[in-house]
């Protein structure tokens, strides 16, 4: 950015590099789900992450480790044992946390 001061001097702002990872997002389908939830989980690096499912009241109903590879990862989660309702799924790893919600029919 080129800036002009009132005294006529010109200065430039410093350049800052940013990394946009918003193009990769956690996705679930089908939604609503009956028996098996399919999860598409992107990862920047290979890592073991933590998958957490909570119900609408905030109670943890499932917690399990998941092995993620760099890129997009497909995970099949059996959810037939969950009662009908709204749930929140999050995956936390070294590069951050991603969350989404799903409905169990």
Would you write up a description of this structure?
This protein is 0% helix and 58% strand. It starts with a strand and ends with a strand. By secondary structure, it is an all-beta fold. The protein is built from no helices and 9 strands.
Helical percent range?
Answer: under 10%
Spatial strand sequence of the major β-sheet: 6-5-8-9
In N-to-C order, the SSE pattern is EEEEEEEEE
Overall pLDDT score = 92
Radius of gyration: 21 Å
What's the β-strand tally? 9
Major sheet details: 4 strands, antiparallel
C-alpha geometry = elongated
Secondary-structure class: mainly beta
Uncertain runs are: none
In DSSP terms (H or I, runs of 4 or more residues), the helix count works out at: 0
Distance between the termini: 53 Å
- The proportion of strand residues reads over 45%
Task: Describe what is shown at a glance.
The chain is mainly β and about 100 residues long. The chain is built from no helices and nine strands. About 0% of the residues lie in helices and about 60% in strands.
């Amino acid at each position: 950015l080129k800036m002009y001061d009132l005294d006529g001097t010109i200065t430039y702002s410093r350049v800052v590099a940013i990394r946009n990872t918003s193009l990769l997002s956690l996705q679930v389908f089908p939604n609503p789900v009956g028996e098996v939830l399919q999860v598409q989980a992107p990862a920047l690096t290979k890592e073991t992450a933590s998958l957490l499912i909570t119900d609408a009241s905030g109670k943890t109903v499932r917690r399990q480790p998941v092995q993620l590879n760099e890129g997009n990862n497909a995970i099949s989660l059996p959810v037939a044992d969950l009662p009908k309702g709204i749930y929140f799924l999050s995956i936390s790893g070294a590069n951050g946390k991603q969350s989404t919600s799903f409905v169990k029919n």
